[in-house]
DNA sequence: AATGAATGAGACTTCATTCAT
DNA sequence: TATGAATGAAGTCTCATTCAT
């Protein structure tokens, strides 16, 4: 029994540590997103997380480790969206429609997170953690690979034009990011409108193009 | 006459001042693009521009003013691309194809410039120059408006689907940015391939969609 | 009876407390000697002593108190060496020879302990414990006084040159420290050689000088 | 002529830089000696040197570089003393007597400088500059080698006992350091007495020993 | 007009000490 | 009593900006 207790107590400690880490990441994430990584000070993070400055160092080795933690979170979330989407019932179109939905919601809630991340990731002065970052970046781009699968299926069964499926994913993703940027960054004040319609419109443009087709013959 | 002379001399001075400013902007631009705004020091800019550090302050009031100068340059260039594109002969499709060309070349040559700019522009703690920046941002988004014109024409004459033309521009631009990001940031090492083909492919997807059409039957 | 019990229990407690203090001092001493006082953290001491960090404060009021404890130990040991030496059978020469032996062994085993202590003791910004430190320092220099006794005897009975006996002790001690510094700090890698011979040589130089004497003639 | 001017101006700049470096070293040296290296803050050095904190970094890359600068100074001075001493007219005894004089004066003026230096030099966590420090340390011990020369001469011509000359230097130096420690550190308050007599006494003990010799018989 | 040495606010990080459990 | 998470003062170092030359 003492074993159980000790096990439980260890588990509780570990759980509490994880919880604190998440709290800190949450606070830092908000600030990083609204101000950028370099522009956010540890004092601000500590204040936002309602901890003392030194306490942060009990959970992360450096400011950079906090940033890496956030990136890991975001990458996991991105991958989750991709996997959820391809698990949707139906064909490619249905899956991408769901993906569009999810991405728009995600960006709406998380703002410029990806912008900040890309900004920091792709710079020359990558710090000591090059190896870890490389791995994370690769995982991140893995989301494209996940979505490429149903695309390939569509190509193989003759539903879609014959071309590089990864390329197609990139273009679709590009349209989504473009939309989100214009919608949430350039015109953030506009009241929420129908994001479902937006997702459908984008998906429609991607599959059918923008040329008007006199249906009927 | 002394007025004339003084006027001429002032004019020469003015011209020289502009020339110096451009040199500084050129140096700063290279550094900002490769290292980011915060990470570039005035020492580095001064060294790259082959001026003394103090001299920079004879041409710009602050580091931020230099950044604004670069943004202005970039916005002008972006607008120029938009105007050139819509001036191309032919219909919407030809104009957008040219735009795709131009954007890909531009990003290839200027790297992450836009990334850095967006990163800095859309931050909460915009400093004293809010007004000036707002104006620049608006001009920047003006490029979308320029491209929206031919789009509207296409819609009006029934060639294109009936929808918000600005929205369409945003999606097309998004595909281009997505492609460029994947091509120049994620896979920068890949040898240059046929960018014309890429531009045509993207334009084709945009106009015709990705669905395979059994032409005729 | 309860008094007795309580007294006994207190006594046991007291004994245990002393034991714990010694354990802590032992751990701290090793670290202070190899890393210096300022460079050793309480975390390291706690880990080395296999106690929790907070527990240390049940036995010492501050990091500085730990250091003082170590100094006290060292001073006691130094005095012990002095007293042992003068208790040796024989005359001044035999006593000092034993002292040389002891000091060399002690420095060999305790490394730079004295160096660290002197370094910390003789600083301008002596903290709150000035009084206590002064007292300890005086005790420490007392070792010289102890050794001065047989020296004075030698002077009085005409065996040694007539001069200040304390001065002589200081010079002899200096030679020993010089030897130890060169032997254990400058050339620590050299394999152990005959320290007895060294002690004898030093003692011989001190008593007889370095001038070659044509014995007899 | 412009060449000459430019050459002169460069030289002036260089000279001024050296002068500033020396000012900073002077200020830092005083503080390091009285408080120790770790205990002296950059703010204090800056204040003592009457410079802004940032200015120090125009002349030294880090606090550690300042310390290294001081060590280099001290080592040069030590070597100078050694070389001056062996250049003195007369035999070994006269040379060592001069050395004793010089060392006592030097320690009187520079206090615990060497103590601080040794303390910092011989520790485990030697920083990045291991190579440079090693070289400096070796130069420093070179002073012993310099003094060993006349010692060897004395041995060779039969004046001195046959033994390792370096060993002898170490012992003589030890006596001097011991004397200085007792005189300037332990009893700093004592009014200046006759240091010449002290130097002569120490030299006499070293050469002749402390045993009373019934001259004549 | 050109320069770069001087400046000090502010950044990240460490660590002795406290205190709730 | 034993613990170690929490704390914030204090340390080193950076860099945009100023100003005397």
Write the SSE topology.
The structure is a homotetramer of 217-residue chains.
Chain A: H1 2-35, H2 42-49, H3 53-59, H4 63-86, H5 92-110, H6 113-121, H7 130-156, H8 165-186, H9 195-208
Helix pairs in contact in A: 1-2, 1-4, 2-3, 4-5, 4-7, 5-8, 5-9, 7-8
The structure holds a DNA duplex (21 and 21 nucleotides).
The radius of gyration over CA of chain A amounts to 21 Å
Order of helices and strands of chain A: HHHHHHHHH
Mean pLDDT of chain A comes to 87
Which CATH first-tier class of the largest domain in chain A would you pick?
A: Mainly Alpha
Q: Give me the count of strands of chain A.
A: 0
How much helical structure, as a percent, in the residues of chain A? Answer: over 70%
- In CATH, what is the homologous superfamily of the largest domain in chain A? Tetracycline Repressor, domain 2
Multimeric organization: homotetramer
Structural class of chain A: mainly alpha
Mass-distribution shape of chain A = elongated
Query: What is the CATH topology assignment of the largest domain in chain A?
Result: Tetracycline Repressor, domain 2
Largest interface: A-B, 47 and 48 residues
CATH architecture of the largest domain in chain A: Orthogonal Bundle
Strand content of chain A: under 5%
* Low-confidence residue ranges of chain A: 1-6
Main sheet makeup of chain A: none
The total number of structural domains of chain A is: 2
Number of helices of chain A: 9
């Amino acid at each position: 029994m003492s074993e159980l207790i000790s096990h439980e107590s260890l588990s509780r400690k570990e759980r509490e540590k994880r919880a604190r880490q998440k709290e800190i990441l949450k606070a830092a994430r908000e600030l990083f997103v609204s101000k950028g990584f370099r522009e956010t000070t540890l004092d601000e993070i500590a204040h936002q997380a309602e901890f003392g400055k030194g306490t942060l160092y009990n959970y992360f080795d450096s400011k950079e480790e906090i940033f890496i933690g956030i990136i890991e979170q975001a990458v996991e979330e991105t991958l989750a969206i991709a996997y959820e989407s391809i698990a949707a019932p139906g064909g490619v179109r249905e899956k991408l429609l769901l993906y569009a939905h999810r991405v728009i919601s995600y960006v709406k809630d998380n703002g410029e997170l990806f912008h900040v991340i890309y900004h920091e990731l792709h710079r020359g002065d990558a710090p000591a953690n090059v190896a870890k970052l490389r791995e994370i970046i690769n995982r991140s781009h893995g989301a494209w690979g996940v979505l490429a699968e149903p695309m390939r299926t569509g190509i193989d069964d003759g539903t879609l034009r014959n071309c590089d499926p990864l390329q197609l994913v990139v273009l679709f993703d590009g349209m989504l990011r473009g939309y989100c940027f214009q919608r949430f960054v350039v015109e953030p004040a506009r009241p929420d409108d129908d994001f479902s319609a937006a997702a459908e419109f984008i998906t429609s443009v991607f599959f059918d193009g923008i040329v008007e087709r006199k249906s009927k013959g």
